[in-house]
Amino acid sequence: MENDILGRARSHFENLVQMQLDRVEKMKANEDWIDFQSLDAIRIAIIGGDGIGPYISRPTRTVLEFLLADEIGSGKVVLHDIEGLTIENRAKQGKAIPDDVLQEIQKYPVSLKGPTTTPRKGDPWPNIESANVAMRKALDLFANVRPVRIPKEGIHWTFFRENTEGAYVLGSHGIHINDDVAFDFKVITTQGAERIIRLAFEYAKKHGFDRVTVVTKANVVKTTDGKFLQLAQEIAKEYPDINCDDWYIDIMAAKLLDPKRRRDFQVFVLPNLYGDILTDEAAEMQGGVGTAGSANIGKRYAMFEAIHGSAPRMVDEGRAEYADPSSLIRAAAMMLGHIGFEKRAKRLEMALDICGQFERKIVLTGRSTGGSSGKYADYLMGTIQSADLEEKWNSFQ
Ligand code: IPM
Ligand code: MG
Which atom of ligand 1 is nearest to the CA of 276? Predict the structure, then answer.
């Protein structure tokens, strides 16, 4: 009996180790970054998702069509809807991402994705892996870049969350050893950690920031977090003009709330789960998770999404049309910048700040007491068109 238990555990662990060694080999292959300027057409997939996903994707698509009208007209940019990444279809096929849907997604170097429901034990759905997590792994989207801006408080943060390993990579591959003992696994690799840490430092350098903050729990989670921190400290030596400080996740979560200290932080780099948690906290300070966008960047693919989930309750209660689309529209702005339309990205971001944080002529409450997502998109497009957009935005800073 005892041997059976140990034998099963051993072979389970062996498989996981092999999977991770194979993943490292793929990372070592070190592909080139895709160059959007060299493409005849930039093909963008719009993936509606489920729950409130389609309700916030539609107004986001409208805003993109407005901003990219010329390029869409000339065929330089193509927007293409992909159906089928819904919890219903995923549950039916028993897959985080059904094969045909993944094949379709892989035809598009860029995608804009609405939220998708992540089941857990006890839900009416089979307990399949999160579509987000599966997509990040399948397309090797290793950098989850999440900006949080609160201009009136001088807060300008950019989080570089590692997106393909840490506590997530084997999150659906844990093992119940027996009735009493359950194991999950956390993985940090040299290649996986280095590429996100370097990206954070390069971003800081390019944008003139002089501080990169590494967040771990290396005092307790000594092996994996210890490795992440050590690699960060080594890489930091290559950037003598940038200060590298390190914090533990618990005190970091507290310091984000410290009005005397928080504006000093600039760029953060952190393993997957800590990034997940800290970015929700930061987004809440900006005005709620409904206001925060997220870029999932890899060398060949990039996927842009809201940082929140699919809010099925809003659909059940008939409130989906009042969901705040700012999160996904912020993601769309990041997407515009990523594919080479920086000026338009900036205008969209300014309009989002004006409409969401300052002027607030339409306020979204998630209920019929506030505006609808469609009306909000109209408000944004009107604001983008106004001749004094930049002056207006500057006057609020
Ligand atoms: C996020 C979300 C996802 C995550 C969920 C939906 C799996 O919370 O993008 O932060 O945990 O990464
Ligand atoms: Mg999250």
Answer: 10
State phi, psi for 160 to the nearest 5 degrees: -110, 95
Residue nearest ligand 1's atom 1 by CA = 307
Residue 32 DSSP label: P
Q: Are 214 and 247 in contact (CB under 8 A)?
A: yes
Q: For ligand 1, atom 3, which residue shows the shortest CA distance?
A: 132
Q: What is the H or E stretch that residue 42 is in?
A: strand 42-47
- pLDDT-based confidence at residue 46 (cuts at 50, 70, 90): very high
pTM > 0.90: yes
Over the stretch 240-293, which tens digit does the pLDDT of each residue have?
999 999 999 999 999 999 999 999 999 999 999 999 999 999 999 988 888 899
Per-residue pLDDT of 328-337, as tens digits, reads: 999 999 999 9
- Pocket of ligand 1, beta carbon within 6 A: 118, 130, 132-133, 276, 307, 309
> Domain 31-141+298-397's class?
alpha beta
Could you give the CA distance from residue 302 to residue 127 in angstroms, rounded to a whole number?
Answer: 26
CB atoms under 10 Å from CB of 307, counted, come to 25
- For 366, left (φ over 0), alpha (ψ -120 to 50), or beta? left
- The residue contributing the CA closest to ligand 1 atom 9 is 307
The structural domains of the chain, with segments of one domain joined by +, span: 31-141+298-397
Pocket test for ligand 1, best of 52, 117, 123, 130 (most atoms within 8 A of CB): 130
The 267-270 sheet, strands edge to edge:
77-82, 42-47, 110-113, 302-306, 293-297, 143-150, 155-162, 267-270, 211-216, 243-248
β-pairing verdict for 267-270 and 155-162: parallel
